[in-house]
Amino acid sequence: MRKFHRNVWAVSLTSFFMDISSEMVINIIPLFLFNVLGVRTNIIGIIEGVAEATASVLKVFSGWLSDKLRARKWLAVIGYGLSTLSKPFFYFAKSWGMVAGVRWADRVGKGVRTAPRDALVADSIKPEQRGLAFGFHRAADTGGAMVGLLIAALVVWLAQSTNLQLGENTFRTVVLISLVPALFAVISLAVIAKDVKVQDASAATKISFKRLGKPFLVFMLIVGLFDLGNSSDAFLVLRAQERGVSVLGILLMLAAFNLIYALVSTPAGNLSDHIDRRLVIIGGWLLYGLIYLGFALARQPWHVWTLYCAYGLYYGLTYGTAKAMVADLVAPELRGTAYGTYNAVLGMLDLPASLIAGVLWQGVGRWAGFGPSAPFLFGGGLAVLAAIGMAIWRPQTLPGSTE
């Protein structure tokens, strides 16, 4: 890893700081909405889904723009800056509408930064280290999430909010603390990273999904099937609370999840550099299906704890590996557009996925829904179908192959 380009280190450090900031707040937003503001799960599903979907078009556009301008760094810096500027407004939120507005503004920043950032990493690393680099980035990102959650847990503990309710003052304290690492994230990328020259930007004169190629588009269809059942993790947090896990317990559980995620990401990415990447993704999706079945059947708090720790293994196996596979499937001059498309599709599907989960849980109107187990059975089933699709699919060149 000493041979990594400075951009890999810069992006990883930035993600580390930003996730300290984001995870402190994002994981307690559903508890704040549900416990303090009394918002129903179907509304929470809409908020979380739209939070990602609002950024979807921007992800495609910012990725294409970074291809056209042959520049990744400053678009990413602008995106991180927008997210940082939006965070203070959580402090003043007193209605679910305002929470939603700030959440969506934060995701606009994510939409601007994500594709150029991922393309900057892909541009800066040798193909044989692609999985390792993205795995390392995910490990840094997740390590920041763990630190952020531990800080939030400390705040909750000091506030003695160890019951099932999250105090309004405690939420606002966490928001204030989260502003410091967010600022460090922007500074890290602006100071350390530098743009890498893209060999040819002629293909980026206009946005064209056809130019991304059939292998990439088939990959996106399969990933899209999986993501339709991959609702917001807010539902996992609500399930944990529903099964009797306290707010402090939830934060510590999420910290343990992120520790496992961080430990697994780098070796999983390295493994995907030496075998067919599809095998790593398939294994992760099958594990996801089993975990979601477990969440549907969970009865005790320790069941949820065990499942959430295993959830970190799924994340570690798949997230960095899938990002590396995107770079395998498209030409270098189209990477920004490809990463924009990849992230946009996942973002757009977050809305129906989270809406479906919320409706399955608590219904809509006079219909009471199927109960807390339903969204997890649905998500687990689609994960298995997607894994089968990935196993059947045979791209012309095997991503991750060292041949």
Automatic annotation (TrEMBL):
Q: Which PROSITE patterns match?
A: MFS
Please name the CDD domains in this protein's record. MFS_MJ1317_like
- What sequence ranges are listed for the domain Major facilitator superfamily (MFS) profile? 7-398
GO CC annotation:
plasma membrane
Any single Pfam family the record assigns to this protein? MFS_1
Task: List localization entries.
Answer: Cell membrane
Topology versus the membrane: Multi-pass membrane protein
User: Does the keyword Transferase feature in the UniProt annotation?
Assistant: no
| Keywords assigned by UniProt, alphabetized | Membrane, Transmembrane, Transmembrane helix
GO MF terms listed in the record are: transmembrane transporter activity
InterPro entries noted in UniProt: MFS, MFS_dom, MFS_trans_sf
Which domain of life does the protein's organism represent? Bacteria
Q: What is this protein called?
A: Major facilitator superfamily transporter
